[in-house]
Amino acid sequence: MSTWGGPVDVILTGGRVVTPGGVLENGWVSVRDGRIAAVGEGVAPEGPVTDVSGCTIVPGFVDIHCHGGGGDAFTSSDPAKVRKAASAHRRHGTTTLLASLVSRPVPELADQVSALAELTQEGVVAGIHLEGPFLSAARCGAHDPAILCPPEQTSVTKLLDAGKGTVRMITIAPELEGAVRAVHQLVDNDVIAAIGHTDATEAQVRPAVDAGASVATHLFNGMRPLHHREPGPIGALLDDDRVTVELICDLVHLHPTAVRLAARHAGSKRTILITDAIAAAGVGDGVYDVGGLEVRVVDGVPTLAGGAALAGSTLTMDVAFRNAVNSCGLTLMEAVHATSTRGAELLGLDTGKLQPGCAADIVVLDAELKPRDVMVRGEWVKD
């Protein structure tokens, strides 16, 4: 994907604009110097106008959990392939994403982090998320159980040093030896500590949250199930106001009712939709490698070869947005908060909202809520 040269000054008019304060049915958004200059309703100010009548204007999507797309994964050592994966999601409206890496031996993972650090500094991705290797073998999902290990302090340090400040989030199973100490280590280094791929009891989750863990990695999936006598990680994380919960809204990992229940309980300030997408996103069925494991994608659903375990998704954020609104009962404002605003807030970025001063990351959705146009930092994006 390429962009037309340089930021444009433009006023998008005539569409439905979803702002933090409400939905403007006949709204307009003014963009200047790569930022949102003004937002309003009714008659737009004078200037270069683009008519988006019949469309819905939302902030660019923010995906904090994505492994790849367009046929390539973020584990690749080839920068062109990483750019291709990021571009595949940008076509679907994701203007900001974290590059997620699956479990590998720590030295190999450190090399992958180092390669991605340079691309993060270039702005190809917004940072790095490590989903492993500090996970429970009992809930490993599509992670090689032979590679999993406790979050020993020197291992965590090696990975953080390799990232040079670009590692933004690491997922840890809280029942592992040294997990609480590792959470403290991450928080002290301004890294988000997430809880996931865990067989923990509720009692084992609490100390990690008290230590500063603040995200639930794809709630429900890769976790001990919720039980009325042992709430486990699902109950503990969903019910704690300090924790933001990720939901894979592909309607495969989670039933629409589960999405709705979780989103309604957590509220917009704690709900975030993610893709957990693998290289197959935007490509189609076939055989793929995920962390050294063979994954088969059939009818858009990736599973480990020879088994039924889900292995990420082929989801894109625009589909997650549509699913949230059309199948899960979220309002437009709730869906925007879950696909854009909360992720940007979590990462401390100046995007995710259609309000003056924010970066002009914008998606123009057609009548079916499919992306018609995408703008990144004031530049229109094209294939």
TrEMBL record:
What keywords are annotated for this sequence in UniProt? Carbohydrate metabolism, Hydrolase, Metal-binding
What is this protein called in UniProt? N-acetylglucosamine-6-phosphate deacetylase
Q: Which family does it belong to?
A: Belongs to the metallo-dependent hydrolases superfamily. NagA family.
Q: Name one GO molecular function term.
A: N-acetylglucosamine-6-phosphate deacetylase activity
InterPro entries per the UniProt record, alphabetical: Amidohydro-rel, GlcNAc_6-P_deAcase, Metal-dep_hydrolase_composite, Metal_Hydrolase
Taxonomic source organism: Lentzea kristufekii
In which domain of life is the source organism classified? Bacteria
Query: Amidohydrolase-related domain: from which residue to which, for each copy?
Result: 56-381
Gene responsible for this protein:
nagA
Question: Pfam families from the xrefs?
Answer: Amidohydro_1
**Enzyme group, top EC level?**
hydrolase
Stated EC number for the protein is: 3.5.1.25
